[in-house]
Amino acid sequence: MTNAIIQLPDSGIQQVNAAIDHYNTLVLFMQRSLREGLDYGKIKGCGDKPILFKPGAEKIATLFGLRESLTRLTAIQDFTGKDYNEPFFFYEYKCTLTDRSGITIAECIGSCNSWEEKYRYRTSERTCPECGAAAIKRSNYADQKTGDKGWYCHTKSGGCNAKFHSTDPQIVSQQQGKVLNEHVFDQVNTIDKMSQKRAFVGAVILAANASNFFAVEHTEIQTIDADWEPQEEIGSAAHLERVPVVGEETKDQGQINRERIRLVIEKTRHTLAQVKQMAGKTADHLNDEEMQVLINQLLIDWGRTHHHVSVEIARQLIGEIRAEQPRITDNNLILRFAQRCSEALSEQVPVRRQPTTVGGVSID
Q: Fewest C-beta in 10 Å: which of 73, 202, 229, 274?
């Protein structure tokens, strides 16, 4: 047995490089566009690994052109407590993410139920029998006549300043601390939406290969996966180097150029006649620098006609992307350019995201 590395064919190296570019695109996007506290953040009691919130997941889904579809798998709604001895609600959804061609990229199941601690219990405080305010305090001073350190309704907490004896059953009989939430019916819709959100965020993490940076958001119930380990910090995540393709220089340049043009015009919907007019010559006679200029022109025109940004803004966005990632592949350049165009446009005109559907029916 030797330690020699198996030589991959060119097609295999290209797949490796595509994965590396995908990773680098995600890192740059997170460092540039995601905001801590809004798109992701840390939850007390859940370690140092940040949690991806729904707004951040929506931005990553937009970056990679992912469309969501939610299917309800399970719904238990026991309003009377007949089956579970107390009201119980459980919802389970499957989120499917597809690309622009309709191909499934990732699926994830998320659930939520009313017996999770944050929904099942509430903190009970003593309320005033006179005014109903949760403002009952124990006095630190003895009554001058009786010597009793009784209870009073605190006016600065919204109370009425009523006084009660320390043994008054109206006060001492009230349960205090963590009690069953008798208002759980007010949270049924919240529980339903939470299960949908968990499925969506989990699917985005899977689709974007972002588990190196984020834990799934069901840590909101103060638990984390058993195999969780601290991972890479978003702000200090390093880029990966692409694998050099052995013998790339011996390939036919014209064929390489035609493949690159074919990829770009599939996205931009230009015709070969338009490409030839922009280039001024055939693909066989374009060098790398000329190909880059041509692709830039195609994307600038696409940004103007499809994304409705000005030529100046489109040119600026492409320049920024190429400066950040000089060896970016054409496919990832297109993805990042489309995302940057959407961000630039959102600063001027509100953009409505794709509707969320359950069983083919919009729930927005």
A: 229
